[in-house]
Amino acid sequence: MSKTIVAENVTVGYELYRERQRLTALADITLSIDKGEFVVLVGPSGCGKTTFINAIAGLVKPWSGRILVDGRPVEGPGPDRAMVFQDYALMPWRTVEANVRLPFELQDHGLSKEEVERRVRHYIRLVDLEGFEKSYPYELSGGMKQRVGIARALVSEPDILLADEPFAAVDAMTREAMQAELEKLVAETHQTVVFITHSIDEAITLGDRVVVISYRPGRIKDIVEVDLPRPRFSYDVKALPEYGALREHVWGLVKDEAIRTARGAWT
Amino acid sequence: MSVTDKPTARVEAGPPRLQELEVTKKDLWREYGPWVVTALNLATFFAVWELIARLGWINPLFLPKASDMFAALWEGLTTTAGPGAVISGSIRDHVLWSLRNLAVGMVIACVIGIPFGLLMGANRYVDGLLSPYVWAISSMPRIALVPLLILFLGFSVQMQITVIVLSAVFPIMINAWAGVKTTDKSLLAAAKVFGAKRRQLYTKVVFPYTLPFIIAGIQQGIGRGLVGVIIAEFLGGSRGMGYLLQRSADTFNSPLMYAVLFVIVVVSLSLIQLTRWAEARIAPWRRLEGL
Ligand SMILES: Nc1ncnc2c1ncn2[C@@H]1O[C@H](COP(=O)(O)OP(=O)(O)OP(=O)(O)O)[C@@H](O)[C@H]1O
Ligand SMILES: [Mg+2]
Q1: Domain end marker among A157, A188, A215
Q2: Which of A107, A125, B195, B218 could form a disulfide with B9 if both were Cys (CB 3.0 to 4.6 A apart)?
């Protein structure tokens, strides 16, 4: 299997100009991700998960170490990578439809006008927002906005999907349906997915591997292989005995870190 | 391989999600009630005014009868002054003159204020270079500059328009600047991820984000610009609402003076309302977020 994303000793953080300090968000992360693999990042709040996928997206530059995507160092964002943002990041002046169409407006994906419109319609339907094409984000609920963000990331069918807690704001039922939809989609498109979640169940049901990140500065604490047969939404994966064991294991790893956040972020 | 070839979505026929609203009496009242209340309110106001004036409690020189004011207003708006007439009771010409100057001044203020504000917001060096002057002039009372302008330009239309421009340009500039400066970082990040080049960041994110700020700036600019118009006309020339106010006071024509004040109120309210409407059309999302 070819490696799509390779992070070598990545250390990255932020300059806090006001306090004249630098904050190390992530320290010495080494991780390689296969093409078509579904990797889930879990870890306590503030441990640097968003920072890591921002670095893969090319939004922040590592202080040291490097990130390769398909063998080339990341210089900036590219059409091979798309992202679902934790805070949705929808343009408030654009309708749902126009927000989903944005990737095609910003760069040429080599598609005809009709194909673009077909894609936009298709992914709006996929996230169950038909009938809201002409609505503005302020007219939508949090979960609906998040689904617009998901459609916008999927619409260009990128090789790599970076998803920052994409289902955090949707209810449990919709969430399960969307997880199933995502698993199916990824199986068909062979997309590589880096997925952040606070839900251990979500991590295990979706991921091929679960990367547990420790509290600040974030380091890789452990990587858990999830060897459950796919498609996992075609049967009751949670009933398997291995599932319970995995869950215990990951929960144990995360809990230690969660306690260390000292604010009791039991998420 | 593309997934779009096969529709994968689960589409179930459910209840339609958008349903027509039923209009009840309560809704009608909510919609038109405020208008009825305002109309009654104003009618009462003018009736009480009329009554007080008729009872003669206040010298009619200071407070004419409301009916006299409306008569002067009617006459002033339906007649035009003959050529050479200094004061003829015509309000229309003066109002149009002032509005014309205001419009010219506002256009100039926008043409200067918007690009410079945007540029200052976008470029640190331009900002550093210009901001001392902008903040200095914008924080001083602009009226203090009028004697200087008169020295340079005399009691001319150019002087009046310069006063208007100086009054209106800074709110526009500073608002445009603030819009650029406060552009949501995560919107910029999203645009970058989806492929925006530098120019597109400005056209597709910064400018739309800043547009409602600019409209707010124009709104403030109109308010200040009106002050500029009146003051400039107080000081010189022989036309405009400010001149007419001064002139009607000099000639003890208080119904005319009140009529001009009334027109000024109506004009400013209409202009503010116009920008509100424009804002609601151009930036509907601000309605809710502003609450
Ligand atoms: N723009 C920024 N400027 C300064 N510090 C930042 C910035 N973004 C994040 N940080 C800091 O970096 C650390 C990691 O942040 P990050 O957003 O990556 O955490 P996270 O794991 O995604 O957390 P959460 O689960 O709450 O989303 C945090 O401690 C935060 O304070
Ligand atoms: Mg995060």
Answers
A1: A157
A2: A125
